[in-house]
Amino acid sequence: MKIAVLSDTHNVLRPEVIEIIKGSDAVIHGGDINSQDILDEIKSAMKHNAPLFVVRGNNDKEWAENLPVSLNFELCGLKFFLTHNRKDIPQDVKADIIIFGHSHKYYEENINGQLWLNPGGCGRKRFSLPLTMAIMNVNDNGYSIEKIELEG
Question: DSSP assignment of 54-113, as one string?
């Protein structure tokens, strides 16, 4: 299974990101989408019946009030915890993979058997950070993460 992992689109959905979404079997978005239009674009680019997991970021205002701040879900037998801000991750979180955004800085580390992943920001260029996202490939042997650097 190929999973597109993105965050901090900030009202910009780049063509490269759309192409990755089109080729993915699931999409995980760590918040700061900024508009329902961008969420609709993501949904329309996705494969039919592909799951979408999304949380509200600090810049997602009234339009996103029904989106959760955090989300627990399972994909391919792996337990995920998703939130926008790393500060909102409980110390005793029970998950194989913890995904967050907010900082726009790519981060990937295995901590006590859990993968902590921030795909970075893939919308508007912020600070001097590169535009990034991740692709997670899951198969019978486990999973792998591919960092994607986008044109900016």
Answer: E---TT--GGGTTS-SEEEEEETTEEEEEESSGGGS-TT---SEEE--SS---EEEEETT
The CB density around residue 13, as the number of other CB atoms within 10 Å, is 22
DSSP type of residue 140: T
DSSP 3-state of 30: coil
Per-residue pLDDT tens digits for 2-28: 999 999 999 999 999 999 999 999 999
How many other CB atoms sit within 10 Å of the CB of residue 127? 8
**DSSP secondary structure code for residue 46 in this structure:** S
Nearest-angstrom CA–CA distance, 39 and 10: 11
pTM assigned to the model: 0.97
Q: Is the Cα torsion angle 99, 60, 48, 149 positive or negative in sign?
A: negative
From CA 23, how far away is CA 3, in angstroms rounded?
9
Sign of the alpha-carbon dihedral angle for 138, 135, 120, 14: negative
End-to-end CA distance of the chain: 28
Q: Are 82 and 119 in contact (CB under 8 A)?
A: no
